[in-house]
Amino acid sequence: MMLSRVAERVYWLARYLERVENTARLINVHTNLLMDLPADVEVGWFTLVTIFDGELFFHASYDEINENNVMHFLLADENNAISLINSLSALRENARTSLDILPEETWEQVNELYLLVKSELSAISNRRRRQKLLLSMSERCQTVWGILANHMSRNHGYYFMQTAKHLERADMTSRILELASLLLAENRSQSMRAVEGILWSHLLRALSAQQMFTHSRNNDVNAEAVLAFLLRDSAFPRSLFFSLGAINRYLSPLPGAQKVIDHHRQSIEFMFENPQENLPAEEIHNRMDALQIRLAGLNTAIGQQWFYPVHSS
């Protein structure tokens, strides 16, 4: 078994790598979406802040909600723990301190990504340059995942990284699915109703799911079909069903995993004991919130089992 501090570093490396990629893609897609929507729709720049539960932190530092402030808060604000630059800094540090167990190209790619973002942060108010940077970030993160998949031995370090990736991915998918409560709300505006197809397509694109949805469903983009795909599809790697199942698969080879697996199984049963595609909007929101709490509990259980174990004397 690898040392607990090494296991913790590669675990968080994977969480931050997945977080950076997901955040970059979401902001990129959301920016494109807002260019296509009428001004009076209940989706705006601040929607991005709510996805990350950052409302209180934002209002503590910014007096006005606008594109520049939201972008600075999410991308460049070093006082914001959830900002992309802070996630990227943590990713870089965990890669730097794990050189002995990672493919050597990992550090090269992560460091180049960090330097690229640092050099471009001053230009994030320029939408075209920002979109280009976000696309480059997503592509470089995918390159790192490719290096790890193709050059890393299937050992405990790899299993910790894959567990972390799918835990982080499930968390992000649940946050994006919280938007469904807004799209399905009974009191949504007529403007919102008029562009529902665009909004559901945006939800798919935010998870790189649109093409696979079209291939598997072969039908119109609508609420029930999109929710069924993102919640329950067993073949798509970013559906909740797939991600939660993958966590279980990668936990299984780790020593002493049964207690954590039992904890995780409760989350899976909670999510899928009843169909959710036809739930009221508020209930979908509540289910996704509850899942995020359970995922945070799973993260704590993983830390207690392997990173900070308590040994009885």
TrEMBL record:
User: In what residue span(s) does the DUF403 domain sit?
Assistant: 2-307
One Pfam assignment: Alpha-E
| Name of this chain's protein | DUF403 domain-containing protein
